[in-house]
Amino acid sequence: MECFSHTFKNEHGSFCPGLQQLLHEHQQLNQRKLSLFELAQHIANGEVEDVAEALHYLRGDVIIFSEELEHHSSREEDVLFTKLEEYIGKDHGPIAVMEYEHDLAKEKIATFLAETAVIHSAEAEKLASYVIDTYQLLTEHFFKEENVLFPMAEQLLSASEKEELEKRLV
């Protein structure tokens, strides 16, 4: 994907409205995932007094984040990725990587939620690591979308495709 980064570099302010909406959603998700990451770090580092309570709180926030992430990623996959497939294909390259990372993030979140259905404080560091790993994965993922995929879409999609994107996303 790095070879695309130089060809499709773009400033975030020049995206069409549909891509701007996805970028805005990234910003909102970034704020929430940062707070999840910070709490998970405190848990993993043994910096909380009541580990069970902290894990319970983290679990509740992860559930909310998961719902927001699912809404966002399904919109990317169903709208943006579908449009880009016509130009760059789906089985290899950027779209395949983005979909794989969507699945991987969902898998990490699902594992965390399954393993925290009954909270065991002794496993706090391991449990928190799922959230920390997801944070790191999504940080890199959003970077790739914002600096490779979105600029690529901005250049490849026609004006009418951008209008359709706007209607479906904004």
From TrEMBL:
Residues 19-153 form the Hemerythrin-like domain. It holds the Pfam family Hemerythrin. It comes from the Bacteria. InterPro entries: Hemerythrin-like. Coiled coil: none annotated. GO terms for cellular component: plasma membrane. PANTHER family: BLL2471 PROTEIN-RELATED, HEMERYTHRIN-LIKE DOMAIN-CONTAINING PROTEIN. This is Hemerythrin.
